[in-house]
Specification:
The complex is a heterodimer of chains A (about 170) and B (about 270). With about 170 residues, chain A is an all-alpha fold. Chain A has a single domain, classed as Arp2/3 complex 21 kDa subunit ARPC3 (Orthogonal Bundle). In chain A, about 75% of the residues lie in helices and about 0% in strands. Chain A is built from 7 helices and no strands. Chain A starts with a helix and ends with a helix. With about 270 residues, chain B is an alpha+beta fold. Chain B has one domain. Chain B is built from 5 helices and 12 strands. Chain B has a 6-stranded antiparallel β-barrel. In chain B, strands 6-7-8-11-10-9 form a 6-stranded antiparallel beta barrel. Classes of the chains: A mainly alpha (about 170), B alpha+beta (about 270). At the A-B interface, helix 1 and helix 6 of A face helix 2, helix 3, strand 1 and strand 2 of B.
Chain lengths: ~170, ~270
């Protein structure tokens, strides 16, 4: 039960930080994907497969509040979560900084491709247009943001994060 | 521990039951949960907005001090309010005493709301507020800041929260009127970055750069006379009998952490 409570509390904290604080910052700081980055850090460096639940829940939340520019955020984030699990087990199985970074960047690419595909699919019936150039720029800065977040959080994982890990 | 053993272990099975119970409780009391969370999110959003504003002034100030720029922006806003008020009062004097203008608009019932979250994506053009149906908010209502600058409309509502779409959203359309001689009416749409476009303006209509654009009142739930922006450029296409106005919104939703929602039943 404690584990579940911590899982939910941390999710609420991360989501609040990303949606309320980070998204209010000026671009490109607002592109930093806090929830995805820390989920993958927990998944890979701390070997906690349940951490992908944060990514899926985050997608559901975005759809629920219609806070994502593109439709079907749940689908895109669920695919990203599965990609994170597969890549952390099969492709970047190393728990080093570069391993985690490789998984994070790959997952962000998968997420972006999925989002763009859903955008194209919905544009068949919808005339609204989002500039692909802007979107690629956003994806690029999202990766930079993830790298910066990892540079900050990865060294902390052995101390702060592992203490949290002990609560799970 | 491998994934299979993790998922089938006794401890994992113990995990699913409380997880289900907790999730069920969250779903059942979702509205209240979100309401409580807004206590955390309000200061976070206000802090982020404050940083945004500092960076905005730092980047746009150039050779003048941020405080001077703030004064200039305040003066510009005041002039726009004065001019719009003047134009509308002139209209009133001409014939239509019932025309809704700023004087009457002050009587609208509004609900003050805090921004508790913003959308992510290439264009951050939606935000979450901590007021919902319980406060009388419905879809389509106008969301304003400052002296009555419209920044968006309510997209969806929950019992205690609502999502607002800003004017620059590609899906946004708003009925407007230009404060020129003929009070040209039309629709502004988003999808051009931070700018808006007003398409299909008949070429015989005389519109000019710096003309003020206000809401026309033809939109259900949106009163007339709310300031939208100023015309930044006019695009004339010889192939069509129409011209297009590029409108720059007066207010940037990113610079505010508090907004007002104009309630429909008071219109």
């Amino acid at each position: 039960m404690t584990r579940i409570l911590w899982f939910i509390l941390l999710f609420i904290l991360l989501t609040s930080l990303e949606l309320a604080f980070i998204s209010s910052l000026p671009f490109p700081f607002s592109a930093a994907p806090l929830v995805i980055t820390l989920s993958i850090l927990r998944l890979q460096a701390q070997n906690d497969p349940y951490a992908i639940g944060w990514i899926i829940l985050y997608g559901i939340l975005l759809d629920l509040f219609r806070l994502h520019t593109l439709p079907f955020a749940t689908l895109a984030y669920a695919i990203a979560a599965v990609a994170a699990l597969i890549m952390s087990r099969l492709l970047f199985s190393n728990r080093s900084f570069y391993g985690v970074l490789g998984t994070t960047v790959s997952v962000l690419i998968v997420l972006s491709v999925t989002e763009i595909l859903t955008l194209f699919a919905t544009q068949l019936t919808d005339t609204s247009i989002i500039s692909l150039e802007d979107y690629f720029s956003f994806t690029f800065w999202r990766m930079i943001g993830a790298t910066v977040l990892l540079l900050f959080f990865f060294p902390l994982q052995r101390s702060f994060v592992s203490r949290i890990h002990s609560l799970f | 521990m491998s994934k299979r053993s993790l998922l089938s272990s006794r401890s994992a099975r113990r995990l699913y039951l409380p997880a289900g119970v907790v999730l069920l409780l969250i779903i059942l009391f979702f509205g209240r949960t979100v309401d409580v969370l807004s206590v955390i999110q309000r200061p976070l959003s206000a802090l982020g907005t404050s940083i945004y504003e500092d960076v905005f002034y730092f980047l746009t100030a150039g050779s003048i001090l941020p405080s001077e720029l703030e004064v200039l922006i305040g003066q510009r806003d005041a002039y726009m309010v004065d001019q719009t008020e003047l134009e509308l009062l002139r209209d009133e004097n001409n014939a239509l005493m019932e025309l809704l203008g700023f004087l009457e608009r002050a009587n609208y019932s509004t609900v003050s709301a805090n921004i508790t979250g913003r959308s992510i994506g290439p264009d951050s053009n939606r935000f979450l507020i901590d007021r919902g149906e319980e406060d009388g908010i419905h879809e389509g209502q106008a969301v304003v800041v400052g002296e009555g600058f419209i920044i968006g409309k309510v997209l969806s509502t929950g019992p205690y929260t609502s999502t607002v779409t800003v004017l620059s959203d590609p899906d946004m359309a708003l009925a407007v009127s230009i404060l020129n001689e003929t009070r040209t009416i039309g629709i502004v749409e988003g999808g051009m970055g931070n700018l808006l476009t007003m398409s299909f303006v008949p070429e015989e209509e005389r519109i000019e750069v710096n003309d003020i654009v206000v809401t026309s009142g033809l939109d259900e739930s949106v009163p007339s006379g709310l300031l939208v922006g100023v015309i930044n450029a006019i695009v004339v296409d010889d192939q069509t009998p129409f011209q297009e106005a590029v409108v720059e919104p007066v207010a940037d939703a990113h610079r505010y952490s508090q907004v007002l929602v104009i309630l429909t039943d008071t219109l």
